[in-house]
Structures are given as C-alpha cells and as structure tokens.
Amino acid sequence: MASTGAVPESAAARERGNDLYRKGKFAEAEKAYQEAAALAPEDPAPWSNISAIKFEQGDYASALKNLEKALSLSSSEPDDGPKKQKLLTRMAKCHLHSLSLEDAEQAVKSLADDASGKELREALDGLQKTWFTSPDEGAFRKQVQDKPEYYPMGHDQADTLYDPKAQGNLGSNSAISFLFCGSGDARHLFATLSTMGFAELMARRQKKQNCPSRPA
C-alpha cells in the first residue's frame, strides 16, 4: 500500500515529467512518470503519460500496453468521460498507425461523436478502402528496417546556398534574394548567413591588404 505522502510525491514526479516531456526529453520524462506510477500505483495518469511518450516515439505496441494499464485503472470513470476518451482516442490512433484495422474499428466504436471521433472514423474508413483495393502485400519489397526512427530535429548536413562565384559576377550594390520554404530548424538558413558573413569578412581583409600604405 502506498504511504500517505505518496500521492503528493507522485504528483511532483508527474509535474517533473511533464516539464521534461515539453522539452522533448522523453527518456528522462519516462523515468519521472515511472517514479510517479510506483508512488501511486492506483493512479492511471502516469501510465497515460508513458503511453503518450511511446506514441510520440512510434513504439505503438508499448503505447498500447500502457494504455491498457491506464484504462484498467480507470474502470470507475464513464466511457464518455474526458480522461477515458483521451485514452481511447490514443488507442485508436495506435491501431491505425500499426495498420491493425480490426482493432482500430473496435476502438473507434467507443469514441464520442465529436470532431476528434469523426476524424478518426474517416481516417479508418479511408485506410480500409485503400487496404482492400491495393494489390497483395507480396507485391511489395520486404521492409529492410523494422525499427522506427525518431529525429527531434533535422539530421541532414547543413548546406549553404551562397555561391561566391555568382557573387563575383554581380555589382557591389546588387541584392541577392533567397527563398527558404519549410526551413524547419533553419540550419540551412544559418549556414547560408554564416558563409555570407565569412565571405564579407575575408573580402574586407583582402581589400585592406591591397590598399597602398600612405606616407606619414
């Protein structure tokens, strides 16, 4: 049985986990939620939090296990209650992303008839139509990698769009325009600005070296 101080301690651990989750530190957040679950084993909230982390990481099987634990601890709450609906919605999304269409169909039956429930039902209907009209699975190549990859930020090499040769063909007062579409974390933008700044600095140094010294 949990001690009297377990509930406030669990709430503090969850709050710490929530802060880490918002910062994208999922591994540390999960540890905090597990601590909260150990301090308040009858509270479904930490299990719900862990399922949210697993969902974000693409580990839908683990997310479902934690959702089932949270739902088993929420048996006293009505099915249309907001907390249970949140769990059921995430469960339906896990089944959809896993292409477990039969399980997804069962899950969406428990969802409320609101915008979120309607959206998931439409998504399931579209997947079912695509699934039944597509060629057999054997026509596709086998998946080489079965582990989902998660990147909180871009991982390709930052590249510059600045071309010093093109700059040399322009006049000193010419303007250069760049269009960055969907720049994401803007690494390519920063690489371009850094390269232009460095080129300008080197040009100034070169100009200074080429200037003849004046007699005193």
TrEMBL record:
Keyword Transport included in the entry's annotation: no
TPR repeat placement: 10-43, 44-77
GO function term, MF aspect, one: histone deacetylase binding
Keywords on record: Methyltransferase, S-adenosyl-L-methionine, TPR repeat, Transferase
Alphabetical list of PROSITE patterns matching this protein: TPR
GO biological process: methylation
UniProt keyword Methyltransferase, yes or no: yes
Signal peptide: none
GO cellular component, one term: nucleus
Domain of life: Eukaryota
InterPro entries per record: SET-MYND_domain_protein (IPR052097), TPR-like_helical_dom_sf (IPR011990), TPR_rpt (IPR019734)
The protein's name in its UniProt record: Tetratricopeptide
Organism of origin: Colletotrichum plurivorum
Organism placement in taxonomy: Eukaryota, Fungi, Dikarya, Ascomycota, Pezizomycotina
